[in-house]
Amino acid sequence: MSHRPNLIQRLKRLFGGAKPAPETAVSVADPAIVPDLPNAIPTREAKYQIGQIVRHRLFDFRGVVFDVDPVFANTDEWYEAIPEEVRPGKDQPYYHLFAENERTHYVAYVSEQNLVADDDNARISHPDIAKVFELTDGGYVLKSGQRN
Predict the structure, then answer these.
(1) pLDDT of 33 higher than 50
(2) How does pLDDT run across 11-20, given as a tens digit for each residue?
(3) Contact call for residues 148 and 67 (beta carbons, < 8 A)
(4) What φ, ψ does residue 76 adopt, rounded to 5°?
(5) Other residues' Cβ atoms within 10 Å of the Cβ of residue 67
(6) How far is CA 148 from CA 123, 143, 145, in A?
(7) Closest CA relative to residue 113, chosen from 43, 65, 56
(8) Does residue 41 lie in a domain region?
(9) In this structure, is the dihedral angle defined by the CA atoms of residues 13, 19, 20 and 26, taken in order, positive or negative?
(10) Are residues 78 and 120 in the same domain?
(11) pLDDT tens string 90-132
(12) Same domain? 67 vs 12
């Protein structure tokens, strides 16, 4: 007869025992534990919200936020194309905008440090806005099918 416990006994010990008390449970969102995770990416809360109108602080364009990346999530080639003296850090939120200037409409990808809230209540006339947002008295609100 073997002194090793059989498979069922080992599984019971591993999974069938009493659950730990709530005070011993650890949340992945617990800031004390996140830095110790090998794949953790330090992030901060986004300053601007989806549907908010923002303006670039250096260039003359404004837009509606339609998505947010907690940190830089574009290609290295795109990032390296920005002149080094004005290249923003990657460790900040980046915003996808339906953007416009006096001449055209386009999609922009902008770091948080380069945006400011736009207090002008003028509409943004980008043609893709209607696919994603409803215009209400309160501003741009995601259509129900766009929420995840």
Answers:
(1) no
(2) 455 445 444 4
(3) no
(4) -65, -35
(5) 13
(6) 25, 11, 8
(7) 56
(8) no
(9) positive
(10) yes
(11) 999 999 999 999 999 999 999 999 999 998 878 999 999 999 9
(12) no
Determine the Cα–Cα distance for residues 137 and 131; give it in Å rounded to an integer. 18
- Torsion angle (degrees, nearest 10) of CA 14, 19, 20, 23: 160
Would 68 be classed as within a structural domain? yes
Asked if 110 and 98 touch (Cβ cutoff 8 Å), the reply is: no
Query: Is residue 81 domain-shared with residue 128, that is, in the same domain?
Result: yes
Beta bridge partners, 110, equal 95
Structure tokens at 24: 């011993």
Number of domains forming the structure of the chain = 2
Counting beta carbons within 10 angstroms of the beta carbon of residue 69, is it exposed (0 to 12), middle (13 to 18) or buried (19 or more)?
middle
Domain assignment of residue 95, given as a range: 53-146
Residue type, 21: A
Q: How far is CA 132 from CA 53, 93, 140, in A?
A: 14, 21, 9
* Residue 46 lies inside a defined structural domain of this protein: no
